[in-house]
Structure of Glycerol operon regulatory protein:
Amino acid sequence: MSQTVDRALSILPLLAEGPADLGQVADRLGVHKSTALRLLRTLHEHGLVYRQSDQRYRLGARLFALAQEAVENLDIREIAHPHLVRLNEECGHTVHLAVYEEGEVLYIDKVESRYPVRMYSRIGKPVAITVAAVAKLLLADLPEPERRALADKLDYPMYTARSIPNAPAFLKELAAVREQGWATDLGGHEESINCVGAPIRGTDGRVVAAMSVSAPNVVVTADELLTLLPLVRRTAEAISREYSGTAPHKEASS
């Protein structure tokens, strides 16, 4: 039975390359045409393959529906959390995960710093959208008309002297973030807190979440925190690969 399942599943990558006839499927699997036909009929009954009028087979619509459903039900927090924990173990600083929903950027996970000085941030709490590194990453990925419309309706509170003051400055910052692929908040929300972040991307390359490492000046300087950027980006890329299905799931270190 396991061999039959293996052969059936092997047909799907073949058809992903383009339509194939019965002989091509049989040759790829190394089986008789009658065996290949039985497998194709079973896949056809489940909507995973479709027989065209020219008698060639292609991937069925049901397969795409299942793939879309799987993507929609992926829990980015569950996938990202072990990676965030490992990053926290390596650097010791606070690690955040955030998503963009209905005009707000929300923290959906947090791993606390090992240092006595803690950040006041909570899971489920909106971030300071005009200054936070995670917000810049998420908003920079929006289509330009949407970015401009959002920037025009936002308020720009001057939390500190380094806060972004207005829509033109915010759009310029988002353009830079979009180009470089990472973001910072160096005292823009709180004078004493610095942050560096990177995007997490889905199968289509769009940003689905953003993660960051934050630390107060009394623990590390802004320049010292910026040296962690390669590590932060590697972590975000690892989460992206796992989320998009191009890397195997890895359990968190014990």
